Amino acid sequence: VTELDNLPARPEPPASLDPEDWAAYRAALHGLVDACIDQLADAGAHPWRPVPAATREAADLTDVSEPGGTDALAVTLTERILPYHSGGVHPRFFGWVQGTGNAAALMADLVASTMNSNCGGRDHGAIYVERAVIDWCARCFGFPPEASGVLVTGTSQATVVALATARLRALGPDVRSKGMSGAPRLVLYASEGVHHALTKAAELIGIGSEAVRPIALDARTGGMCIERLRARVAEDREAGLLPFCVAGTAGSVDVGAFDPLAEIAAFCKAQRLWFHVDGAFGAWTRLAEQPWRSLTDGIEHADSLAVDFHKWMYVQYDCGLALIRDERAHRAAFAARPAYIALQDAGLGGGDPWFCDYGTDLSRGFRALKVWATLRAYGTQRLGAVITANCRLAAYMGRLVMAAPDLRLIQPVRSNVCCFTVERETPSADPCSLNTAIVNELQMSGEAVFSTTRIGGRTVIRAAITNHRTTPDDVEAAIAAVQDALRGT
Ligand SMILES: Cc1ncc(COP(=O)(O)O)c(C=O)c1O
Ligand 1 centroid to 466 CA: how many Å? Predict the structure, then answer.
């Protein structure tokens, strides 16, 4: 006799997690929505702030055995969680490459959360929205209408999806069952300064980070040197390795440089190599005015593209896209239909596509809605105008830096990234540590958020403007704050 045999024949209904008092819940949620709108409408008054002890205490989950209730939750969310964001919403936030989000996508998030759709597959509204977003992206980047795609957490995951598909194309479908043992050694090529996401993806698909060949840059363009690429591929073929992919970058993380995508595309076609593009943020210059729009010429020839909505399309985290020209290769790399998810002819279990066939996730949220809402609410012309404005502001920042006697521009501003260093005559002053100290000081004071990177062996101050709230006043104030901080050191 087991415990189960002693259970009553008909169990009690469960205590549902729905509110007991819907009116009270409605009031609490309305209050919370008001607090969210208040904070968003006054984003300039809410820079990143260090997390106070009260919030760290509120985050603690040591004792959650008893229900706290949604009324108390709404208060804690408003007072302890909401104010302590990561800063990207603020108009003087230029650190790393971080997005701002937007008000239309906030609406979508509320709806997506209410619907709680699982977008791994089946036939329901969210699937049609995601397909529409992917089709729009295919048109935007000049991919054929039959191209496939899948929304993922971000470019890091999209790169894994793209490279896994390229690997299948190179080694055949057996790679899924047999793995990499005994397979030829695959190598892939990317410009120096490629984002680490590519290296990680190479590790994850089993070819190893040493299979990523860094190709030197052309000093004139700041992008990949095609002659170096040609020489390295020939050398690897000679050594018995199997070159299979070239990854071009549209917007390098350090300086916002662009590889010559059209030239790489022609090279890949001639050499029968997969052409991948890391366009995490820079691909969106496709929506901008000239001269920025032309930076991505050639992207339409890519076999795969990894791109983020959460950076320069101003959509809330997290949301990226793997876009693949050859739907059949994409599906062959991921599709599997065990009996419990077999396709039905009709009903909820029918429909096509099932997005679980195009990536690693079976259960997936309704990420597409916030992208769809952004496109619907603002339209591509307005989004393109903001992207153009961000490029102009980065160029303006570059000009202010060049005009300042105590600052020096490190590289020409090519898109939305501006890197510079302080320059002081005092022999004892090490510019690397001064740059780091100034960036820290401005973050702590809430005046502006820059980040740092290493260029030419030196730690420099870096601004990447992917911010629809930034104005020329913000850029002037941020550069003035750097100079003030320098004077104070
Ligand atoms: C050029 C580039 N590639 C890839 C990534 C990684 O993207 P994600 O953070 O969305 O995974 C980034 C992030 O900044 C990037 O700038």
Answer: 13
Which amino acid is located at 358 in the chain? Answer: Y
What is the residue type of 197?
A
Query: What would the pLDDT profile of 232-287 be if each residue is shown by its tens digit?
Result: 999 999 999 999 999 999 999 999 999 999 999 999 999 999 999 999 999 999 99
CA of 386 to the centre of ligand 1 (A): 20
Q: Are strands 242-249 and 304-308 parallel, antiparallel or unpaired?
A: unpaired
**pLDDT, tens only, 392-403:** 999 999 999 999
Chain-centre distance of CA 142, in angstroms?
A: 21
**Percentage with pLDDT > 70 across the chain:** 99
CA of 292 to the centre of ligand 1 (A): 20
| Test site for ligand 1: of 305, 308, 367, most ligand atoms within 8 A of the Cβ | 308
CA angle 263, 147, 126 (to 5 degrees): 135
User: What's the CA-to-centroid distance between 252 and ligand 1, angstroms?
Assistant: 9
Tell me how far the alpha carbon of residue 194 lies from the centroid of ligand 1, in angstroms.
Answer: 10
Rounded distance between C-alpha atoms, residue 442 and residue 135, angstroms: 42
Q: How far is the CA of 248 from the centre of ligand 1 (A)?
A: 13
Atom from ligand 1 closest to the CA of residue 194: 1
- The string of pLDDT tens digits covering residues 335-373 is 999 999 999 999 999 999 999 999 999 999 999 999 999
The minimum-distance atom of ligand 1 relative to the CA of 97 is 14
For residues 157 and 195, the answer to whether their CB atoms sit within 8 Å is no
Assigned token pair, 224: 């990949």
Asked if 211 contacts 202 with a C-beta cutoff of 8 angstroms, the reply is yes
Q: Write out residues with Cβ below 6 Å of ligand 1.
A: 97, 154-156, 195, 197, 251, 253, 278, 280-281, 308, 320
Atom of ligand 1 nearest to the CA of 157: 11
In the chain, what are the helix, strand and coil shares in percent, each to the nearest 5? 45, 15, 40
Q: What residue type is assigned to position 169 of the chain?
A: R
pLDDT in tens, 198-215: 999 999 999 999 999 999
* Cα distance between residue 205 and residue 164, in whole Å: 6
Which single residue is written with the structure tokens 């195009």? 358
